[in-house]
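Okay, any thoughts on this one?
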Amino acid sequence: MVCMKGIESLKKLFFLILIIWFASLVPVSADSTTEKPVETIILQLKWFHQFQFAGYYAAIEKKYYADAGLKVILKEGRPGVNYSDEVISKNADYGIEMPILLLERHQGKPVVVLAAIFQHSPEIMLSRKDSGITSPHDLIGKKIMLRPHGNIESRAMFYNEGIPVEKLNIINHSWNISDLIDKNVDAFSGYITDRPFMLQEREVPYNIIRPLTYGVDFYGDCLFTTQKEIDKHPQRVKAFLDASIKGWNYAMNHPVEIVNLILKQYSTRLSKEALLFEADAMQELLQPKFIEIGHINPGRWKHIADTFVKLKMLSPAYSLEGFLYDPTPVSDYDKAIKIVWILVGVVLLIILSAIILFLFNRKLANQVSDRTAHLSLEIKERKQTEAALQESEKKYRQLFMNAPAGIYEIDFEKIRFTSVNDIMCKYSGYSEKEFLSMNPMDLLTEDSKNLYIERLEKMSAGEKLSDTVEYNVMTKDGQEVCVLLSNDYIYKNGKLTGARVVAHNITDRKKAEEEKIKAQKIAGEHKKLALVGQIAGKMAHDFNNILGIIMGNAELSFLDCKDKETKKTLKLIFEQTIRGKNLTKNLVAFAKDQEPKQEFFRINEKIDLVLSLLKKDLEGIELIKEDKPGVPELLADPGMIEHALVNIIQNSIHAISLSEHPRIMIKTYCLDDNICFEIEDNGCGIVQEHLEKIYEPSFTLKGSKDVSGAYKSGIKGTGYGMSNVKKYIELHKGTLAVKSEFGSGTKFIISLPVIKKELTRKEKTELQEQKINFDKYILLVEDEQAISGVQYRILSQKPCNHRVDIANNGQVAIDLFKRNKYDLVSLDYILPGEINGMDVYHHIRETNKTIPILFISGNIEFLESLKELKQKDNNIDHLSKPCQNKDYVNGINGLFKETTRPSRDH
């Protein structure tokens, strides 16, 4: 009985404690439900009433502000107003301004950005279509209407394009579009949301120059307030921001309704069509389908700040701390209240537990022994399960972080990354913290952004797409990386909500594929050239027979002829048949990939020869020839260079066939140890898309391929002329460039290296300063006398002072090597007769495995084959013809080992 009374007393005590606890909560609960007084705040708009501020109209109309206990008064903007000063001076509580707020913050103004409403700046430059102004460079020296201290995006665009502000004629903004229409100015800064419509209404065609196109991607309109407002009214700031964002979401989903609201309650300054145009343009600026309205990315603000630093508008020691609003600060008071209630809860739980334990102590005492074994087993199993779970999670994290590919998870609803591994961070160059704070769109290039948006729209519409996709990602240091993504999509209640993604960096693979395509293209060209070689080989024999008959008869007639004029004609026939024979020889050499036969000659004399040969074709054409003094002799194959000149000049003659005043200009000059000659005409020119194809075998724009009517009828082309020219120039280690514009003419610029007949004084001095080997015995194997003469002089004179034997064919080289002990062999690959350079090499290696051998050749395939041979034989090297004299000496010196046998007196 006493026990029962005790239990009843404890029950009463238990309920009494509960009543006291709930009673303590009543004031807080009642306080929270007390209706708050309506607070009036002023929002300073950036301009006159228009759709640019649609979200705020919607928040008022739909009572989002009223529900938050706010009455919002909208204050129209106007030209000449500093909107941050309006807020700081308490003429308004909140305002709207561009990223120039960052500069004002660092000037001491306590402004804080609450939200970036426009994800992209609406700023553009407009010009009339008939002005021809389409790029920033076209604005140099032109009249440009900008705000005195504004239009930062346009100024950043000029900086990115390397255009000094001093080169621009900037005048203060009048805000009147008529200044552009009436041609008072050449370019006019404005918003893409309204100014283009004004020009369309007045039927004025226009061009748009957008800073975004030139790498300047700033935020547009930003909602801001002061630090004092945030400190004094934190709840009001958050309520105002949340209601504003809610209003913007409604406005962008119901543009027609908001347009009608503006016309009815705010302003009829703009027509309904103009407001709808503005609403449509703002969809691209806000991107509400893909980015949360108001989203702020600290990384983009850092990019904006770095741009200001480049423009010398901001100190490099800037800080973003305190500039961007944090919607979730926890006050000291809230922390204290939270701790108090946790302590109260803990105390109550302890008291309740004590009461329960006391009430049921006797009953539980009898059951403890029975339950102990069962509980012990249950605890053991639970611990084992928890341990297994922890181990499983640990293994998953290890796999996730150490996988050989990038892995991340993405939430499509919040448009946020939720997790990422180290490899993905390595791909992007961002830390894990930086990566998780980014909007996925910020990682992608412009093309990949469009693809991402397109795929997301299709998947949201229920369309099934491939799980794999390639995107181009911009790394932190500005590099472009190609990644292959494999997606495991996540659905909730049939709705696409996210994905787990495995990413592989395939940049190297893509480059390899591009190189493979390029190699296949080159192989195709080689195949075409091989076919040309077969045809040329068959034709050459018959053509040479014909030339032989003409040459023989012309020579006999010349010897028997007594008439001077006739003898002159016969001599010309004889000389031209020799030239025809040489051209045939060059054609076969080209087709068979033979090396050029080099000798020294004057390029001016060769040009004069070609012009005399084409004298009849040049009739009626103005010929301008400029020869700069001091052009040295050229070491090259005269036949190949002549053939190249004939082809280019003949093409110029064809190109000017329909010109009213046909003109060909030829220049020769010396530039940086290169002999250059230019051939320029004022003919039909070449379409840009065909410039890369003119060197392809069988490609021609003449005859049946002349769809534009640029050439006189009857002019035909084989398509092999420029292919031959390119090959001839490359065989001589030269360069060939072309500049052309359709309808304005073409210029070919050829540059060939200067090979001097001996070392210059400067080269000798440089070689003497090096530790070169001298007084050696060298076998020089070279069949071309012009080249062997130069090499002999270089090697035998100071500072080398080598003893040199010359062999002009393979058999002589072998005989000389048998009789003498040489220190090095300089060996040409192409030699006359049956024994070539490789035959000489193998003969040398039969008796001497270590003597250094320097191969000299212009045959590309042979030089490629030497790479494999060099892995087996460390005592060989190679140089490509033609080579500079200093390179030749260095090549020989590099082959000599540090310890060589003592020099001998020869």
The longest strand covers residues 480-492. Residues 167 and 365 are 96 Å apart (CA to CA). Residues 23-34, 898-906 have pLDDT under 50 and may be disordered. The radius of gyration is 43 Å.
